[in-house]
Amino acid sequence: MLEKISSYFRRQGNNAASQLVVYLTADTVHLLRVSAGQVSQCSTATYTNEQWQSALRPVLAELPSASVLDVILAPEFYQLVQLDKPALTDAELLQALPWQVKDLVTVPAEDMLTDYIDLPGQSGAQAKINVVVARLSWLKQLVQCVSSADMQLKTIQPAEWLAHHLIAASPQPAMLVIHQPEQEVLLQIVQDGRLYFSRRTRGLTKLHLLSAQDAQGDMLERLLLEVQRSMDYFESQLKQAPVRDIRVLTQQPDLMCKLLADNGFGRVEPLRAPLQLGAYSNQFVHCWPAIAAAVAGEALR
User: Fold this and answer.
1) What are the residues whose beta carbons fall under 8 Å from the beta carbon of 82, sequence distance 6 or more?
2) What is the DSSP letter of 276?
3) Tell me, what's the pLDDT at 16?
4) Distance between CA atoms of 286 and 181, rounded to whole angstroms?
């Protein structure tokens, strides 16, 4: 069972005519269907008191038997840790990770499922990895729920590993500033289609309530500080070129772009959806992890 569940964290190709992605958050199940680069369905089902299975089952019941699914998890269902990469083979590293991170996360080592991605860095410096940690007991419930609905589970992925698919690959670094209501702001720096830097802020879950009158407020000041610190780390610690471009995905992207630009940040623009959303354009900020997963899946076809 462990090997089977572990395999879901490794990306695989998909030959299906359309892609189906389930994005699971702390209170919502999102279902995204994509065909030929266009979103044809984006539906939601809400739940309370951690009763996610009661919301997921009816969603899956509406799909054709043996449909292939990607499942994307919101941050409530995993923890991320950045580590120096040990000099081990991939298989050895996957076995060692639970003991490497056990003092850094709240998941007991005996109930961990871990995976990692390599982070690019400066030449000659210690290689870094970004490690995802989830509860194996909870993942078993998820796999069982999908399997009992006669669905084929292709991958399970953390949302934060997918955001770089929302922007076209470029040799110039760009920062993504992403905020979903009641979530911390996600700051990422991507370059050449790869994730270089990622972190979540603290204390900015209400950023969607920011107004033009808050231009001198504490919440904006904290965001500006976090953005600048992240850029400084990328340039000074990772020895990379300065970040000139910022792409913003929030409930009020135009306002946020203006506030950032008014405070000295240069090329700030709203992040444009990489798929044709049609009638679902207002769902981009809520369903971006599912959209990013669909883009990644298209690249693997």
Assistant:
1) 119, 128, 129, 130, 131
2) B
3) 63
4) 8
- Reported as a single tens digit per residue, the pLDDT across 246-300 is 999 999 999 999 999 999 998 999 999 999 999 999 999 999 999 999 999 875 5
3-state SS record for 131-179: EEEEEHHHHHHHHHHHHHCCCEEEEEEEHHHCHHHHCCCCCCCEEEEEC
Token pair 């090329």 is found at 267
Q: What is the pLDDT of residues 141-168, one digit of tens each?
A: 999 999 999 999 999 999 999 999 999 9
The DSSP result for 203-267, as a single string, is S-TTGGG--GGGTTSHHHHHHHHHHHHHHHIIIIIS--PPP-EEEEESSSHHHHHHHHHHTT--E
Give first-to-last CA distance, the chain, whole Å: 27
**Tokens found for residue 260:** 């950032």
Instruction: Name the more confident of 170 and 125.
Output: 170
pTM over 0.90: yes
Of the candidates 71, 78, 58, which has an alpha carbon nearest to the alpha carbon of residue 152?
A: 71
Closest by CA position to 180, among listed 268, 278, 290, 297: 290
Which long-range contacts (C-beta less than 8 Å, at least 24 apart) are formed by 199-207? 199/230, 200/75, 200/160, 201/226, 204/179, 205/181, 206/182, 207/179, 207/250
- 16 versus 100: the higher-pLDDT residue is 100
Q: How many residues does the chain have?
A: 301
- Reference 284, options 257, 256, 252; nearest CA is 252
Q: Is 180 exposed, middle or buried (0-12, 13-18, 19+ CB in 10 A)?
A: buried
Map out the domains of the chain with their CATH numbers.
2-75+137-161+293-299 (3.30.420.40), 78-135 (3.30.1490), 168-270 (3.30.420.40)
The CB density around residue 107, as the number of other CB atoms within 10 Å, is: 21
Handedness of CA 187, 133, 155, 119 (dihedral sign): positive
